[in-house]
Automatic annotation (TrEMBL):
PROSITE patterns: CBS
Alphabetized Pfam families for the sequence: CBS
Record protein name field: Signal transduction protein with CBS domains
Lineage of producing organism: Archaea, Methanobacteriati, Methanobacteriota, Stenosarchaea group, Halobacteria
Domain of life: Archaea
CDD domains listed in its UniProt record: CBS_pair_arch1_repeat1, CBS_pair_arch1_repeat2
Keyword S-adenosyl-L-methionine (UniProt): no
Length: 379
C-alpha cells in the first residue's frame, strides 16, 4: 500500500504571520491532528499541540516561531517508510507532494486506519513504554506543563496519594482549559490570569475515568479503543488493578510498523534534526556494536529519541537521549543527558549496556539456580 491510497487534499492551513491565539482557538474549535503553515502560498512547516505546549510565548506571537519542519512525502511512497518518517520527525502530520506540487497531507490516524487489520500480530506488551512519567492529583497545572515539556511527552497518568491511577492529563486537556478559561475571562490582567491557571490542581482538569489497556491485548484492539474514545494514548495497567505499568500511544503503534524481522537491526531516531556533531550512521553503528557484545540477545528494533532542553553550554544545547531496544528477551533501555547529541547518546548507551548486563546477570543467576536444583534432585 502507498500513500496515494490514503492522502487527503483537505487540511487546515494558516499563514506564517498568524497569531498563536488564533492557532490555539483552531485546535479548540476543530481539534485537527495538525496544521499546515504556509508562506506566500508555499508550504513552510507544521504546528501541533506539542509545539504549542512547549511554547511560553504570548498570544500575539506569530506561528512561525513555533512551527516545525516535517518530512515531505511523495504521494506514491510506501506506508512503512512514511510511518518511519513521521516517527523520526516527531510529527503527526506530513505534507504529501505530487512532483513539486503540494497535493495534501497524511496523518498518523490515516495510516493506522489503513493498516489496522494487520495489527493483530502485535501486542501492547511489545510496544508500550514502560518508563512512565506521572504526576500527583494535587500538584499544579504549572508543574504538569513543566513535566510534559521536560520529558517530551504528551500525557501524564495522575496518581492519588496511594499511587493508584485516578486520571490522566494531556496536552490537549491543558490547551482546551487555557483557551476556554481565557475566552471566559476576556481581556484583563494577562499575567495574573496565567499565574492563577498554573496554580490550579491537576485534579480539576484531568480526564477521568481513564481509558486503559493490558499488556496482552493486541495493537489493533487498543487502536480501535483510541479511535472510539478520541484519544491518542492509553495507560497500561495490570488486569484488575489501578497500578500503572506503561503507556501505549498511536506513535508506539506507528513505530511498530517499521519493525523488521530480518537479520539486520532496524534503528529509528526521533528528532534527527538534533544530530548536530554526529550522524545517523554513527549512532546506528554504535548500537550495532553494543548489540554484538550480547550474541544471545537478538535486537529486533532500536529506538533512539532525542530531546533538547533550553539550557546551553557555550552555545551547545543540553540534550536528553533515550534508547530502547526490542529484543527476543523483551525490552531494555537506557537514558542520559549531555551537551550535544553525541555526548548525550554515549551516556545513554553506557547506561543501556549496564542495564543489559544486569538483565543477563539475573538470567544467568536463574539458570545457575535451576542447574543446581536439578543436580540436588539427582542426589
Amino acid at each position: 500500500m502507498n500513500i496515494s491510497d490514503i492522502a487527503v487534499s483537505e487540511y487546515v492551513e494558516v499563514d506564517v504571520d498568524e497569531r498563536l491565539a488564533k492557532v490555539r482557538s483552531i485546535f479548540e474549535r476543530e481539534n485537527p491532528k495538525g496544521i499546515v503553515v504556509v508562506e506566500d502560498g508555499e508550504y513552510a512547516g507544521v504546528v501541533g499541540e506539542k509545539q504549542l505546549m512547549r511554547s511560553r510565548m504570548e498570544d500575539d506571537t506569530k506561528v512561525s516561531a513555533v512551527m516545525k519542519p516535517a518530512p515531505s512525502v511523495d504521494r506514491h511512497e510506501d506506508v512503512r517508510e512514511t510511518a518511519r518518517l513521521l516517527v523520526e520527525g516527531d510529527v503527526k502530520i506530513a505534507p504529501v507532494y505530487e512532483g513539486e506540487k503540494l497535493y495534501g497531507i497524511v496523518t498518523v490516524d490515516q495510516i493506522l486506519e489503513a493498516v489496522i487489520e494487520s495489527l493483530d500480530a502485535i501486542t501492547v506488551g511489545q510496544i508500550a513504554t514502560e518508563d512512565v512519567i506521572g504526576i500527583g492529583e494535587t500538584e499544579s497545572v504549572g508543574r504538569a506543563i513543566n513535566r510534559l515539556r521536560e520529558n517530551g511527552v504528551s500525557r501524564l497518568p495522575v496518581l492519588d496519594e496511594g499511587g493508584d491511577l485516578v486520571g490522566v492529563v494531556t496536552t490537549n486537556d491543558i490547551v482546551e482549559f487555557v483557551v476556554r478559561d481565557h475566552e471566559r475571562q476576556g481581556s484583563g490582567d494577562r499575567a495574573g490570569d496565567i499565574d492563577r491557571m498554573l496554580d490550579i490542581p491537576v485534579y480539576d482538569i484531568m480526564s477521568s475515568p481513564v481509558v486503559t489497556a493490558t499488556e496482552d491485548e493486541t495493537a489493533r484492539a487498543v487502536v480501535e479503543r483510541m479511535f472510539d474514545n478520541e484519544v491518542s494514548g492509553l495507560v497500561v495497567t495490570p488486569a484488575a488493578t489501578d497500578n500503572v505499568a506503561g503507556i501505549v500511544t498511536k506513535t508506539d503503534v506507528l513505530r511498530a510498523l517499521t519493525f523488521t524481522e530480518q537479520d539486520s537491526m532496524d534503528v529509528q531516531i526521533t528528532n534527527v534534526d538534533l544530530l548536530e556533531g554526529t550522524s545517523r550512521e554513527h549512532i546506528v553503528e554504535s548500537i550495532e556494536q553494543a548489540a554484538d557484545k550480547y550474541a544471545d540477545m537478538h535486537v529486533i528494533h532500536a529506538h533512539v529519541r532525542l530531546h533538547a532542553h533550553k539550557e546551553k553550554l557555550r552555545g551547545t544545547p543540553l540534550i536528553q537521549c533515550q534508547i530502547r531496544l526490542r529484543t527476543n528477551e523483551g525490552q531494555v533501555g537506557g537514558s542520559g543527558e549531555g551537551y550535544g547529541a553525541e555526548h548525550a547518546f554515549h551516556v545513554a548507551l553506557d547506561k543501556l549496556e549496564r542495564n543489559v548486563l544486569e538483565i543477563k546477570g539475573v538470567n544467568a543467576d536463574e539458570e545457575y539456580r535451576g542447574q543446581l536444583l536439578r543436580k540436588l534432585g539427582e542426589l
